[in-house]
Write a structure and sequence with these properties.
The structure holds two protein chains of two kinds. By secondary structure, chain A is of the alpha+beta class. Chain A is 27% helix and 21% strand. By secondary structure, chain B is mainly α. Chain B contains 13 helices and no strands. The chains are: A alpha+beta, B mainly alpha.
Chain lengths: 541, 311
């Protein structure tokens, strides 16, 4: 039997009438790859940072700022942090501003005078125009007040005991009236930025015009990158000299430091003592430092039941003797802070030194023994990043307390965690809270009202400052807040501060310095205690 | 094939749906209250309640979820609490930067790791290959933030030839892309090496050599093509993970991508922003995986997508 071997088959011709499977897949892959490339973005910046002078028209070059927090917008209805003030005020201005001595100075207002306890009379400067040439009107101020008041969660709105009502007198004059006296209204109004009424809304504006020395030519709120150019219609006598300002968001401090050293940015803010130590040794970098207005404190929990050791002011005072604040200031914080000498920062207008924190562990032990307190256990809580060196400070406290026979347990919360419920006394029990209290008005009254003005009514809704409720102190604070005469008001505030100190609300407190690093070619930065500066005075060598 | 694509699209849609649903539940179960982040730590109880009502957080979780699904259908993920803008817009504003960085890093990694892996395979178990192997292990071991800081120190500070941060120019992509690529090269080159060693010892390889195919043809036309499927899978998987934002690298280099955006959104419990980020990145990730799967028949004609393997 024979078997036939089939002849080799000829190559089959490809089917006609359509592309091959491989071709379809290849085309599809190419389309997909093309789509991916189309989704790519290009560089976000324009001018190179730190470029030299162009020498034209008395203006020069580009100033690049590296901020630690992202500027969501150049409006402050919702967000306002220290570095934001510098940039926001470059574009929009208020009737007043906080001056170098933390007192209000006139900006858009020519005068801002208290005519009665509840009324102020304001006159706008003549000839002030926005960057588009349109004049500033009384209606713009009225609309601004109406737009700030309803913004939920507004940092600025929280500072106003009540928003004033505006009544127009003439084209440049008006009155601001409140139902109860707001004696620092001129300072508070420094945070109300004026925008043309037609463009203003009760939300953060992403664009628009202002009266500041710069205009916004590029805004990317998502990345926190902005470009500002000189406002050719700027009304001020002192004109800016820098043509362009680039604002960049750089959250990581080490990145900001590297960018400064490499020349990618000219100014960085909010740096810690470690970075200062590093940068001080670098040629071409200068450090600006000024005592700040932020009050970082270790605050006691005042929601302890009667009879609890921590409800006894003498026990609270005794515990303060266990804290070696000098070691913390030098060893952990690199002398970038100052131990507080009262219940508010000494830099604030109206602040007085009412006491000092003393380190005396033997006194602590003897006092606790005298008060019959033994085996005391404390829980210390704080949010990570509340202040520089927070974790190291708390760990140091554990050891200091151990030396006096007190057991301390630490509980750190991550940002976004539920420390808020703990602070309001709605969650776990705690004894000491690591916290910071900022101040953008330069007034001790603002901090005192916020921290020590608790009343039983506020505490009923857990709105007092960690349960600090002393009706007599709150009443005196209200009296000070309604006293127009500055000397009398400061006298009342001094009494209040002593009364507060005598309740021993603080285990320890300190005031961090406002720190900023700049390249040597940048001059004219006059850093204020509120951690901002007037961009108009900045120069590039 | 069309049925396969349709099935995969359906699976991808289900994957995205389950992902965003899981994230929806998990972020709401996590500790923290976005009202505090929104209103500030000193907000009164009344303000916090008002904010929660405004955010819809006072509703039962089921109600919030149903509303969320309805919003997705209408294309409205919600307004970011932090940015006060549509959350999707915030994410899409940054997404191109992340895609750019991911593309640059994966292309760089592929261009280096494939030839390196081939080189290692051809000199497998030799002294030189051992030395390179040790380097790849070192590359795998070094934390990416450390690599980034070293590169910054050398190329942006000591010898300032490249930008230190940001994406102001194309030069700004070099250091972050290299930082990401170091780890990827270490991993991928070892994978290429492993697959190639197997391919080089296969019978067909010997036959091809006997038939007179050139050495380069043998390596690149035969061995590498047969090793490509797992390598392409790995490249695709890694690229998809990069699209979620290489957080550490973005923070070190101040890269305006979504990695740092997600960190900020998590810190502030910005639910709409978190959900928008997850939605966008999940869609991109499944799209990349689908694209990779569709490439298999290109690489290996034996692969028939969608067909069951008969016994």
């Amino acid at each position: 039997m024979t078997s036939s071997i089939p002849a080799p088959s000829t190559p089959s011709t490809p089917p006609t009438g359509g592309p091959s499977r491989r071709r379809v897949l290849g085309a599809g892959s190419a389309v997909g790859a093309g789509a991916l490339l189309a989704a790519c973005g290009g560089p976000t910046g324009g001018d190179d940072s730190g470029s030299g002078s162009d020498g034209g028209g008395g203006t020069e070059g580009v100033l690049t700022l590296g901020l630690n927090r992202s500027l969501v917008s150049l409006d402050n209805k919702l967000n306002q942090f220290d570095a934001a003030v510098t940039v926001q005020r470059a574009v929009r201005q208020g009737l007043t501003a906080i001056g170098d001595d933390l007192k209000p100075v006139m900006v858009l207002a020519e005068s801002f005078e208290q005519t009665t306890d509840t009324q102020w009379t304001v006159k706008l400067r003549e000839g002030i125009v926005y960057s588009d040439g349109t004049p500033v009107t009384v209606e713009d101020v009225a609309t601004a007040l109406e737009c700030y008041a309803p913004v939920e969660g507004s940092f600025v709105a929280q500072q106003f005991p009540e928003f004033p009502t505006l009544e127009k007198i003439d084209e440049t004059s008006f009155t601001l009236t409140t139902q109860t006296p707001v004696v620092v209204l001129d300072s508070l109004m420094s945070n109300i930025l004026i925008t043309p009424a037609a463009a203003n809304k009760p939300e953060e504006l992403q664009d628009g015009v202002g009266t500041g020395p710069y205009t916004v030519t590029n805004a990317e709120s998502g990345t926190g990158s902005y470009t500002l150019e000189i406002n050719e219609n700027y009304w001020g006598e002192e004109k800016p000299t820098i043509q362009t300002i680039e604002v960049r968001f750089m959250p990581e401090e080490s990145s900001r430091v590297v960018a400064l050293r490499s020349g990618d940015v000219d100014v960085i803010d909010s740096i810690t003592a470690d970075s200062v130590a590093q940068l001080e040794s670098v040629d071409d970098v200068e450090i600006e430092s000024v005592d700040g207005t932020r009050f970082n404190q270790l605050f006691y929990n005042f929601r302890k039941p009667a009879g609890h050791p921590m409800a006894n002011p003498e026990v609270r005072r005794a515990l303060t003797y266990a804290v070696d604040s000098a070691s913390i200031v030098t060893g952990i914080m690199g002398d970038s802070v100052t131990s507080a000498k009262g219940v508010v920062p000494s830099t604030l207008e109206g602040a007085v030194d009412v006491g000092e924190f003393t380190y005396d562990p033997e006194m602590c032990k003897s006092e606790l023994a005298r008060l019959g307190v033994s085996d005391l256990a404390l829980t210390i809580i704080w949010e990570n990043g509340e202040f520089a060196g927070d974790a190291s400070t708390m760990e140091a406290l554990v050891e200091m307390f151990k030396a006096v026979g007190v057991t301390a347990t630490l509980q750190q919360f991550e940002p976004g965690g539920d420390i808020g419920t703990w602070r309001r006394g709605e969650a776990g029990d705690w004894d000491v809270l690591g916290n910071g209290y900022g101040n953008q008005t330069g007034l001790a009254l603002t901090t005192i009202q916020g921290m020590y003005g608790g009343t039983p009514e506020k505490e009923a809704t857990r709105d007092s400052y960690h349960g600090f409720v002393y009706p007599e102190i709150a009443a005196k604070i209200s009296e000070a807040g309604a006293t127009s005469d500055e000397q009398a008001r400061n006298g009342l505030l001094a009494d209040v501060q002593q009364m507060v100190w005598d309740t021993y609300p603080l285990l320890w407190a300190f005031v961090p310095k406002a720190l900023l690093a700049r390249r040597a070619r940048v001059g004219g930065i006059e850093l204020k205690p509120i951690n901002s500066y007037d961009i108009t005075t900045v120069t590039l060598d | 094939m069309p049925r396969y694509v349709a099935t995969r699209l359906g699976q991808s849609a289900l994957t995205v749906f389950l992902t965003i649903s899981a994230v929806f539940v998990l972020i709401r179960l996590a500790p923290g209250d976005p009202a505090y982040s929104y209103a500030g730590p000193l907000a009164s109880g009344e303000e916090l309640d008002r904010v929660r009502t405004q955010m819809g957080l006072d509703q039962p979780l089921v109600v919030q979820y149903v509303r969320f699904l309805g919003d997705i259908v209408t294309g409205d993920i919600g307004t970011s609490y932090s940015f006060r803008q549509p959350a999707v817009d915030v994410v899409l504003a940054r997404m191109p930067n992340t895609v750019t960085l991911a593309v640059a890093a994966i292309v760089l990694a592929a261009l280096i790791s494939v030839p390196l892996g081939v080189w290692m395979a051809r000199r497998a178990d030799t002294g030189r290959e051992l030395g390179v192997n040790m380097l790849t292990i070192a590359g795998q071991s070094m934390p990416d933030f450390w690599i980034g800081i070293v590169l910054l120190t050398v190329f942006a500070v000591t010898f300032p030839v490249l930008p230190a941060a940001g994406f102001d120019s194309w030069a700004g992509i070099v250091l972050p892309a290299v930082t990401i690529a170091v780890l990827q090269v270490a991993l991928l080159s070892r994978m290429v090496r492993r697959e190639m060693v197997g391919a080089l010892s296969a019978p067909y390889f010997t036959v091809a050599r006997a038939r007179g195919v050139s050495e380069s043809g043998l390596i690149w036309g035969y061995a590498l093509r047969n090793s490509a499927v797992p390598v392409v899978t790995a490249l695709g998987t890694r690229f998809a993970s990069m699209l979620n934002g290489v957080v550490v690298v973005e923070v070190v280099f101040g890269w305006p991508g979504i990695g740092s955006l997600v960190v900020r959104a998590l810190e502030t419990r910005d639910y709409p922003l978190i959900q928008a980020t997850v939605l966008v990145t999940a869609v991109l990730a499944v799209a990349v995986q689908l694209l990779v799967d569709l490439c298999y028949p290109l690489l290996d004609p034996r692969v028939r997508l969608g067909r069951k393997v008969s016994a």
